[in-house]
Amino acid sequence: MNNNLDRNTNNKNTTHKNLQILNDLNLSAIFENTNDSVWAINSSYEILYVNHVFAAAFYASFGSKLQTGSNLLYSLPQPLQAVWKSRYDRALNNESFSFIDHVAAENVSLYIEVFMNPIVINGEVVGALFFGKDITRRKLDEQRIKESQLLLKASIESQKDTILFSINKNYEYLYFNSAHARVMKFAYDKEIKAGMNILDCIPIDADRVAAKENYDRALRGETHSNIRQYGDEHMAYYESFFNPIINEQGEIIGASGLARDISERIKAEKDLRKSEQDLKDLNATKDKLFSIIAHDLRSPFNSIMGFSEILLDKINDPTFTEAEKYLKYINTAANDTLTLLDNLLSWAKSQTGLLHIRPRTTRLSAHILDEINQKKLVAKAKNIALNNSASEELEVFADENMLRIVLRNLISNAIKFTQRGGEIRVFASKTADGVEISVADNGIGINNETLQKLFNPTLQASQTGTANEKGSGLGLLLCKELIEKHGGKIAVESTAGKGSTFTFFLPEKK
Length: 510
Prior knowledge:
single chain, 510 residues, 15 helices
């Protein structure tokens, strides 16, 4: 009987003390209308107060209904009791703190930011008061932002040809992606780090000056772009965009750069322009060939046919004494036609990529003498002297067939444009890095206007010879192409009425 009286007395005392705490805190009046969870316990973990938000959330998470006076720890699932006991004990030991807790249960996933505070009355900790704020939406937003940032970073990093960086007003790196780091390593052999001065990482003066100008324009508030080539040994074209970085107060605090490697695009554009030029050159070549076939090739055949018909008519006429003269005309026309056909064939091969150079070391004088001997009859018909001053020991590194085509054309042209009784001289000399061969005549020369057209396939540069020989201009174009295939060059010096000297250079064997 006495035990029951004592128990009733203790319950009344506890209830009275709890009601006193509630009255002192006035929790119900303050917290019942908030959207946050609020609850309080005494030092024995017994519930002093729970608002409806906390009670509903606790029931949704763990399926338990909370009552004032019940032990909050025992209301939790067993795995969570130790965790929350340690937290409650910190508050009951007069510590204020906060944390974020993830509540995961069946069909429930919440993020709660919890603030834990001791309840102190008359200097004594009599319990603890807790606020729980549902920050699930904020956490999900943060997670989405983080995922977006990771996605953006991954997207930027996946663009191997797109570089991105930002600097402060002192040109120091704030950020750069891996593509920019690779470019700096590739172009300048520089390992960059955040905080480095970007200008100090560019060792090439011209690149550094250009980069600083771009950054300064952005740091002055100007948005601009350009296309420029960077690097020394490893060069690439980049299209770059520069923008100021402006804070919320409208102040410029740095600059950003975005660049894309457009080397392939530039190369494609160059290739396209080259293809267009090649097409124009091919069309000019085609027109040139058609013109030669239609006009220049017909003319010598007309001469051959005309003179041969005269000879046939006079073959039985004992009074006809000009047979030798007509035979010389026929021979000259046949030689010119053969040279023209050879040139046409070689030129066509050259333009279609079928003319391949096969150079070897060969004695120059032997080829000069062979070509002079082949042209002796033509030169004799005009009483022109052909002289060779090249040393017998002089050697060149060249394709023999191409060398002879060049010599043949230059000697033929000299004969064509030299008057009767004139002289042609072929001479050669050793230079520091090759051999120079010249064919000089004292013929009619070339005026300045024609000189400008000599090696241009789109312009007509042919002249009529001193014996009315026809010319196509193709021979000189072919000479230039063949010499350049050897890595050499050709030049001409001429004065109208005084003769011409064509000189070509062949480099030594590499």
